[in-house]
Design a protein that fits this description.
The chain contains 14 helices and four strands. By secondary structure, the protein is mostly helical. The strands form two sheets. It has a two-stranded antiparallel sheet. A two-stranded antiparallel sheet has the order 3-4.
Length: 363
């Protein structure tokens, strides 16, 4: 099967949906005051799902660049994918969710500069845990409105990195992918070395504020940079080497199960870096055909950005009204899926229709 053919019939939308729901399930425990479940050593299920997102993103975004290596059009596509849904979600959070669940008066809420700081940090993806006045202050995770947004600034940064490296390599056609693959291969090895040095205690995990961007509130954890870059670059490299890689879902999933049986530690992390990207892409490209029924229904992004605030709102009902925790999880899950579907249908999909077409697509 050719790479293009595999993209016409694949299970990427299913895989992203499953990853988004796994993040929801993992956060349900943390928001309820319980320990999050783990899949690989001490790594939470939600963290594993985020890694899957970065593998898929590296694979598909690199494909997008290779099809049309034009900086402006590439960045326009990325902006149209991320920001319309994010802005609408932020507005709904500030204008509806905040007033409904805030424990301060309406005058205190609307008169607080905190709402504008939250709005700015949310739509610019610069904040990890933004807060709104009087919101969720008695929850197990007090005041955190949307803790899922932390990953977006890392993803956007990697989009820009891909574009800059692509332009620098002068990659104008698909057959000239070798320079980009070489650069990404070196970067992949460097990130693995960096991640290992942090794991072994040879380096100290710190918070890094990039020049200029720190004034906008951007902060990056060096450990997350190393880890997320490995998974993103793995997806990118597997795309660049797509014609040389055979995907088989059964061996890939069996290898992943074997990794899960390893004890927590450095070797588990190395095995996960090597196996998870292949297993995830094998499920998307060689998985059962029934998984392809989700193709064209990419609700995952909407679910990802709406889940946390809705879960916090449901937890507030647990704390204040005595709602059973299981009922709160169920209600928030249904609302999250519904809003994710509505976001895709009425916000994200229309925005994607505005994406600039490549010259080859219009010729």
């Amino acid at each position: 099967m050719s790479v293009d053919a595999s993209h016409r019939a694949n299970a990427f939308d299913f895989l992203r949906l499953a990853a988004a729901l796994l993040v929801f399930a993992s956060h349900a425990f943390a928001i309820g005051g319980f320990r999050e479940p783990t899949l690989f050593g001490s790594e939470t299920a939600g963290t594993t799902a985020v890694h899957v997102f970065f593998v898929i993103s590296g694979y598909l975004v690199t494909q997008s660049w290779m099809r049309d290596p034009h900086l402006r059009r590439f960045l326009q596509r990325r902006v149209l994918r991320i920001f319309p849904g994010l802005v609408v979600m932020t507005l709904l959070t500030v204008l509806l969710l905040g007033p409904l669940f805030s424990e301060v008066s309406a005058a205190a809420y609307w008169g607080s500069s905190e709402i504008w700081r939250f709005f700015w940090s949310s739509i610019t993806t610069s904040a990890h845990f933004g807060s709104l006045p009087g919101l969720f202050v008695h929850n197990p995770l007090p005041s955190g409105v949307n803790g899922s947004l932390w990953s977006l600034r890392y993803e956007l940064s990697l989009y820009v990195l891909l574009a800059v490296v692509g332009v620098a390599c002068g990659m104008l056609q698909r057959r000239r992918a070798l320079p980009l693959a070489f650069v990404f291969g070196v970067a992949w090895l460097a990130c693995i070395g960096w991640g290992l040095s942090l794991r072994l205690g040879w380096a100290v995990e710190e918070t890094w504020a990039p020049p200029v961007l720190w004034q906008l509130g951007y902060r990056f954890d060096t450990g997350r940079i190393a880890n997320l870059c490995v998974f993103f670059l793995s997806g990118a490299l597997l795309q660049l080497l797509a014609h040389r890689v055979k995907y088989r879902v059964v061996p890939g999933l069996l290898a992943l199960i074997a990794v899960a049986a390893l004890p927590d530690g450095v070797w588990l992390q190395v095995a996960l870096w090597l196996v998870l990207p292949y297993a995830a892409l094998a499920l998307a490209l060689d998985g059962p055909r029934v998984l392809r029924v989700f193709q064209g229904y990419d609700y995952s992004y909407g679910i990802y950005i709406y889940a946390f605030p809705l879960q916090q709102a449901a937890q507030a009902l647990v704390s204040r009204k005595g709602m059973p925790w299981g009922a709160a999880v169920l209600v928030s899950c249904v609302l999250t899926v519904v809003l994710g579907a509505l976001s895709w249908r009425w916000v994200e999909k229309p925005a994607l229709r505005m994406k600039p077409a490549s010259p080859r697509a219009t010729s």
